[in-house]
Automatic annotation (TrEMBL):
Signal peptide coordinates: none
Top EC class for this record: hydrolase
Name of protein: Beta-amylase
Reactions accelerated catalytically: Hydrolysis of (1->4)-alpha-D-glucosidic linkages in polysaccharides so as to remove successive maltose units from the non-reducing ends of the chains
One Pfam family named in its UniProt record: Glyco_hydro_14
Origin: domain of life: Eukaryota
GO molecular-function term, one example from the UniProt record: beta-amylase activity
Listed EC numbers: 3.2.1.2
Protein family (similarity comment): Belongs to the glycosyl hydrolase 14 family.
GO biological process: one example: polysaccharide catabolic process
UniProt keyword annotations, A-Z: Carbohydrate metabolism, Glycosidase, Hydrolase, Polysaccharide degradation
Amino acid sequence: MSFHECRDNFSGKDIKIPLPNWVTEIGKANPDIYFTRRNGRRNTECLTWGIDKERVLRGRTALEVYFDFMRSFRVEMDEFFKGGVISNIEIGLGPCGELRYPSYPTEQGWIYPGIGEFQYYNEYLLKSLRNANKEKGISFWKKGYVNTDTYNSQIHDAGFFHDGGNCDGYYWKFFLNWCSKVLVDHADHVLMLSKLAFKGSSLVATISSAHVAQLTAGLYNSCNRHGYAPIIEMLKKHNTALKFTCSDMCNLNQDDHFPEVLNAAWDATSDE
């Protein structure tokens, strides 16, 4: 189930299947329905999770639109479900169908191993962040913007990530937890509706394997926090299988300082 714009990022072919016209028309009048980077540029690959429960899509929330689409597909393809032709359904949860923020879009100039940029600068996610601040008793947002520089900054150069940088502070740990929670909550809600629409079918979700842009993508994975644990627990609750993209890549294929895989042990165990 694709709730995102389809692009060919690998073969070089000019393939682009945008979001439905009625959605993009709404986006012209209200561009805050899209994820947004710090400089105000919108990413139209998919809808921001900030409108999951906001009635901005012709009176419907984004979650209601996703559910209606899935239910319609199930009804139209009933004979294939009953005949066993369709037994697994992969649920799109973000850009490229992956559970992540669109923090490293190649069409906006990102090149590996850039750290990417946070994409929460739209009306709805900023409102969510302000509400989270209030719940924690934080009266103001300290600096307003997260200093990750540009898409292609290196992790040791950006003020937010380098040793002693902002991400080590209490507030920014709170911020990264908020980013992760919004991501997990979105998947939780969509998969709950998916189980209703596709009762009896197996569900599959995709996430990107860890790399240098994982923090801006919402995967709060650090030396003292297992960023994948809350995702795995949520998928387990919905009995949903997990698929990693690029999990076939090993450290030898990557820059020595920016391995694509989860850790060095991955390579050792993958050969057993």
